[in-house]
Design goal:
The complex is a heterodimer of chains A (318) and B (741). Chain A has four helices and 20 strands. Chain A has 318 residues and is mainly beta. In chain A, strands 1, 2, 5, 6, 10, 12, 13, 17, 19 and 20 form a ten-stranded mixed beta sheet that branches. Chain A has a four-stranded antiparallel beta sheet with strand order 4-3-7-8, with no helix packed on it. In chain A, a hairpin with a 3-residue loop joins strand 3 and strand 4. Chain A starts with a helix and ends with a strand. With 741 residues, chain B is mainly beta. The radius of gyration of chain B is 26 Å and the shape is globular. The chains are: A mainly beta (318), B mainly beta (741). Chains A and B meet through helix 1, strand 1, strand 2, helix 3 and strand 18 of A and strand 32, strand 42, helix 4, strand 43 and strand 47 of B. Strand 18 of chain A pairs antiparallel with strand 32 of chain B, so a sheet runs across the interface.
Amino acid sequence: MRKLILIPLLLLGLVFSSCDEPFSPKGEFQQRFAMFGIMRVDTNYQVVTVTKSYDVEGLNPYANKKDPFVEGCFIRIWRGNDEVHILRDSTIARKNKDRYQDSIKFYYTNNFTPKIGDKITIECLLPNGRRLTSSTEVIQPIEINYSETDLIFPVKDKDFVQVKWRSSVADLVYMPQVKLYYDKLTNGVWKLHKVNVPMKYLDGQPVWPMPSNRNYVRLDTVAVAKVLREISEGDPNKSDYRIRALIYSIYVCDRNLSAFYSSSRKIGDEFSVRVDELDFTNVNGGFGVFGSYSEKRTSVLFDEKYITNFGYKILQTP
Amino acid sequence: MKAIKVSFVLLVFLFVNLNAQSTGKLRGFLTDKATGEALAFGNVYIKEINRGASTNTEGLYFITSIPGGKEYEVTYSYMGYQTKKIKIFIAKNKITQVNVALDHVSIQLGTIEKIGKRTIEKNETNIGLQRLTIKQLEVIPQSVETDIFRSLQTMPGVRFTGDISAKYYVRGGASNQNLVLLNGSPIYNPFHAFGMFSVIDPEIMNSAEFYKGGFPAQYGGRLSSILRIQTKDGNRNKFGAKASASFLTAKALLEGPIPHGSFIFSGRRTYSTRVLKKFLNGNQPPFEFYDLFGKITYRNQEFFPGAKFSFQAFTSQDKLLNDDPLKEDFKWVNNVFAFNWFQVYSSPLYSSFTISSSRFLGELIPNLSNARPKKNEVNDISLKMDFTYLFDNKNEIEFGVQFQGLHTILRLENQFGINTKIDNSGAYIGAFVKYKLMQFENFGADVGTRANLKGLMGAGDFFIEPRINLTYNIFPWFKLKGSYGVYQQEITTVSEETEVISLFEPYIIIPDYLPVSRAIHYIAGFEIQPLTSLKIETEAYYKDLKNITAVNDNKKFLEDKDLLSAQGEAYGMEISANYLTPKVTFTASYSLAWAYKVVNGWRYLPRFDARHTINLNLGVKLGKGWQASAMWIFGSGLPYTQIIGYYDKLALGDFHNGRYIYDSYMPYAILGDKNLGRLPNYHRLDLSLSKKIDLKYLKVDLTFAILNVYNRKNIFYFHRDTGEIVNMLPFFPSATVKVEL
């Protein structure tokens, strides 16, 4: 009988002693390099960063406090086959110093404005003699699909306002942003103001347009009305407000940037678990992305009667 | 060409037959006396002539070439039932039909009958085959629910990648290479709740046959394994009801007689998912599932002599509905309807005709979340007709035809945001013939071939799949076995190997730009039975996998293909020892295995490659309805991809803020070559104790189990971004109660 009593005691002992084995998911450190460059069509100032990989004690990569920026790179950008630009290094002040203390280092050129359809190639010669190369083609902006786009807000018989667009290339990532443009009379002068408009409110919280491959953005009528109310909240002089329009700014990423963005998104759903997912890169010889994006703007005007109901004035000029 | 030559040799072999003598035949059905349910794989034995047969899944047995005009004592036996000896007169040149019903041994006795003498099946070609009954499943300690798929995982040669999943991998094959048949109808996604449980409630199961390889010619369409589940027909003698509850589900079963037949209906539904937090690392998803099964069987010997008609309907549904529109919803549904006509003719011939419809729908609805939409629809209509003829010399010929119409649709967005729509339909027409050579006492052969006349895929043209299984008894206690077979598969799943927990595996017909997947199995082994109660089996195998599909992880742009053609091979050996006495059952098995996959010229170990696996299973009947069991599993660490450093990756978020290029960087782990690392070894001890209480009108079965008794921290996976390790099931007690009226 005594022996029988020992069995559950032994089992309990096993439970509480547990059984654990030290394990590290890390293998031998191998040096890699990453290059990021996103060409903007709205400026002649283009920035490229080059960093190297690092290792840390343990599993918290934030423990690395040494800026991995790679100095001494020789970076060139070509437009087509002839026009070449050499990038120089520079620094700007770092706002967030949680990880790295020094200024932010980067490479730039201030003499290169990409144009729609440009074929741009980049080559980075690293101090160790290795090369990182990549290329991109500046994408056409989207075209507004006016047959499925609402031009005046609010829309009769609909509780939302929609702007829809099309692109010549499928599966691109679009980044829409909607702002309400309005003027406010301050000291006798009309001053332009802008405020972001969410798609909707859920439990009082705004839901903002997110980058996605959806080729439309819909704003709830209620959400727009809420923003319209809030701009003058607490101000009894409603006539000091002059509403212009809803201005849509839609960025479209090229294929490389779209793929990079999609792969950077969190896991596909809340419950699926993936391991060793591939990391998108179009940089030969390393990680990172070299891409471009373009922008299209459009506006949705307001119905005058609707605006005057708020006590505001209307200015039908976006 | 090689395959055609082999097939020709086999066909020549088929027509080797001997003339009938003045003999008689004995046939009939072996059933449970209380319920009328077929007793599959039971034994019928005539000692005087040392001849016997095993019952098939319908409970049908057939013994030919019995010297006629004489009375014999025939022994009918089945594990857990009282053996019956009946004197039967065998007339010359006639079929004597004797249906026998066996009494279940009272559980109070705490004893079970020995199974039939081994001589009955000594030349049976059963390589790679495991047979299961619900009673065997109940001996294995279970997590939350008794589950047939989880029970398979305890068999040598069958691997799993985590406690959470009932998904299984057989002898180095991917999980989509396993076919699950419910009464002959395919089920495409036979899992509930992220693959944690099978959709098939074991209460409806009568028997199961599981082929780990070398499956004979009547089975096709998959490269690695076949699980054939035969359900109960329902109690033909009286009405009955069962109800049971676990921490997860409540279920009920009703059965009873109808005029000239029987019915069975069962249903299972989740009522709480709290217990699943243990499986999902503290996450409690708001999902629910249910499954319903119904079967009506009709036998009218006056109007349809020798016929049995059955109609079955099965449906399972999983739903995960979030109240929050910022989260995604899921639903996945299986619907199976089938009609079967089983016919025993006046000659030694029987046939089975099945028409079935199997539909799977799986959908991920992203709502306003970041989740990527997925939708998969599979519609399968199959028609099968098989005939089996038994010759006087004990040999058998089986042949049949199969038609399958399949339509698969898949829409998904991959990790690079690329949308895919694959819409394929195809019609398969095939036939098979096999000859079972049983006439020699010490030698058995099962030779046959499948002829794929038209494939589902455009590329799936005429193809022959020869199959050979051989058995040779060198000594009465020593049996040699061998198998060779060619297998073809024209459907695949588009689930990435990187997904260790997945909601569903979408099935599609392999697109026409890829060749048909094929495999060749070579298996050899031996079986030793030094004692009646002890059997030792060893099998070594080599599986050559050609043109298996792999998801193109690198599909970055629309024009890139979704799937790639990959190659693979798997080899290894398994040894198992089974000790079976009325009071004690003990099984020990060891597997040594290698599996490789080659994608784009890169050869790597798939995630389910486990070098060593040990399973020990002990069941003891303690008497007075008490039963205890213990199971210990050991598996070599599974492959994983190591972190070889970190880099600061640009976090694209707000493009409208131009500063992101300077300071929006997050550390990101860099992975080394695929699956070069090994996780620590897996091991776990499970214990269970059950008590059967037999009251006057009620049977109560109480089971208490503890999984992972010593709380081994088996690693499931680690988070790439944080390195956080997620372990598998911890110390986990569970209980179930079952009540039977």
